[in-house]
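Slide 14.
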Amino acid sequence: MSWHVTDLPSDTRIRGLSRFLFLATGGLMLVLPLISWGVWFVPSLFGLLDRGYPVPANGLGGGGLDWFIWPLRIGAAGISSIALAVTLYGLFGLRALFRSCAAGGYFTAEAVGGFRQFALASLVNAIWAPFAHTLLGVYLSVANPNVPNAVEISLGSQHFQAIGLAMLFFLVAHILAEGRKRHEELEYIL
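Slide 15: predicted structure.
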């Protein structure tokens, strides 16, 4: 018996979708750093000066950015890079899942491990998000002479939803791993 399923009628659709998602995930991995860093290096382009954009603790304060010098921008980008690195780690795992599925290996170690990696990254990012928001707010408000120093701690329903979704991903990863283990046992018996 093989791990690669090829005799199901839906296999062609699953493989095609997996190939598309593999490529789309790769594209996303290229664009995310540009957006994550571009927000801080070219804030006017991304609308950070508009009142509608939720900058932690109103850290940019609107108006001119003559105080927001390059070392400060690099620091803000560095704080944002923590979540970016965790996200890219998760996307590498998701890409491994899609690569394996595109080859027909739906329950391979690569597929299950890739999904576990994505679940872990989702959980870490969900837990890190409130801390990152607070850290960025303190960093920006202390550096900006136009706004008072502020500590903004935010823990809302969206954080709990993200943690719950990450836990759901862990459950699915555990189910996939258990299914893979049982499939191996059946293959060994046969």
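Speaker note: The chain is about 70% helix and 0% strand.
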